[in-house]
Predict the structure.
Amino acid sequence: MDQALLKQKFIERYGKGQAPDFYFAPGRVNLIGEHTDYNGGYVLPCALSFGTYLLIRENPDHVFRFASLNFDNQEEIVIDGFHKLPNNNWVNYPLGVIDQLKNEGLKTSGMDFLFAGNIPPGAGLSSSASIELVTAFAINDQMDFKLELKDLIHISLQCEHDFIGVQCGIMDQFAVAMGKANMALFLNCRNLFHEHVPMNTGAYSIVIVNSNKARGLADSKYNERVNECSMAVEDIRKSLDIEYLGQLSLEDFRKVEHLIRSPLIKKRVAHVVAENYRVLESMKALKDGQVDALGKLMRASHISLRDNYEVTGSELDTLAETAWDLEYVAGARMTGAGFGGCTVNLVHWDKLVDFEEIIKKKYFEHTGLKAGVYSPGIGDGVKKI
Ligand code: GLA
């Protein structure tokens, strides 16, 4: 994004004065390990080269002023005594972060904020975690709070849980904060052990396809899955002392599956247990540059998310199945929470144009919807620029 243009927009909105500071936080795509994070399992996401820019400047007026080049509404909010705004207002993301800082005893002075993002909205590529992290990072820097990245991750996650009301896991905030260019990020969500893994995908590039399906009930369906997993833990604890499904080995699962209250919840557990193994195998495949093996694991992941976790839907299935039929695609699967959103594909770099043409055509024929196709780079985590 053109920094001079952004600065000009900032001045148009907030007037001249001291130059604003610039920050950036990426979006993320998850290669594999879906719906495992809140189960204390493994994930393998990457930070993207597109994300959210933030220009910020302190003001003496005891207010927070929020504006974005992506949304029409602007808000001016008094520092003390604010509440969540109605109607899914985007400002709740930065406001929720400020609220969490306040809960930690860290008071933010008046600030003018201008956000500008190039993550396709509603695509499940973590535009919300990106806004949260860029806000937390910028305020921490401006106010000299001396918080570490891991604190900013937790503040952003608490903002989702307490202010926004989505019981998400830690993957998105972690990837947005800790991602590195051209690296995937392996994370054990139970103990936060993490490792950067080079993207050894040879001649295959990451291509993201957006189903452009409205993710209407996504948040409530997401919370429903989180609850189903808690019920399973409750059932399993009658014989095994676990806190998370991510602690179950395949062997354990076989021993305790009879305790699980319903066939539906058993399917949810079957997904989580197998997906965890797939992440470990995928990390190995990526390290060894075995793109075919990685592709097979991606496909198995999608099938499990379709049949056992039931979060794909016909649009994502059409995108994945179309990609599987193309010999120059090594792997394809849905990415993120599901219920709409995107697929992630490994496409031979020679065939990127053909891929885009075919996937758009077939998807439109099947669903009447237009797919969006992007080839972002794998970028760095949150930073000052
Ligand atoms: C969303 C959540 C993440 C994770 C994924 C599913 O992106 O924010 O925490 O649970 O869904 O893997």
User: Anything to note?
Assistant: The mean pLDDT is 96.
